[in-house]
Amino acid sequence: MDKKTAPVLEIKSLKDSGEFEGYGSTFGGEPDAYGDVIAPGAYTESLAKHKAKGTMPKLFWQHNADEPIGKWLDASEDDHGLLMKGRLNMEVQRGREAYAFLKAGDIDGLSIGYRIKEYSVDTETGVWTLQKLDLVEVSIVSVGANENAVVQSVKAAKAVHDLTEKLKAGDRLSEREFETWLKGLGFSNSQAERAARLHLKGQGEPANAAEDGVAFWRALMG
Asked: What residue stretch is flagged as signal peptide (predicted)?
């Protein structure tokens, strides 16, 4: 499933030739604007595959595959994050525009496009820790007003899928997981919270509550 990160506003250098350097994402610390934390080493396997194939992630404008604006020359991980070195194509209009925006400081963000390979979710905080990522592209971006909603909708779809598979296997969901699953199916916040209380915290032993949750899922999906 393709995703994008919140912009990292850390362009480190820019030359007249169009060569520049910056971080496509950073590791650990506080969750980003979309509630994600990227674990150190998340790109190791993907970068190794690119190196073996002699390829690099693509360099796009605003994650738009129809607007390549240059090429990445090097990508590596350090203690801070994913360090990218690239060159804008100054022969194309969008490349020159990107250079002008960067030079003026009007735009100074990079954002990665990736596929999640491994992750974990803190059920108490809702924070996603991304442990292994397939790096597809790294774009120069401005901060889009509706990007958060798009990313959250993609994230919710994956969460619903994973939690559905967990229920199919007969596994028990926590109250927060159950609420997340119901909200992803279109239930309102209050409906999801009430259902979670009834079916996971309700009366009886935890094992019975778990069985209620599975029965609830089967009734919905049947």
From this structure: none
137-156: average pLDDT: 57
The pLDDT assigned to 67 comes to 94
Distance CA 150, CA 148 (A): 5
Q: Record the pTM.
A: 0.61
Q: Tell me which of 37-51, 94-108, 129-143, 191-205 is least confident.
A: 191-205
Question: Residues 63, 4: contact at Cβ < 8 Å?
Answer: yes
Give the pLDDT of residue 45.
96
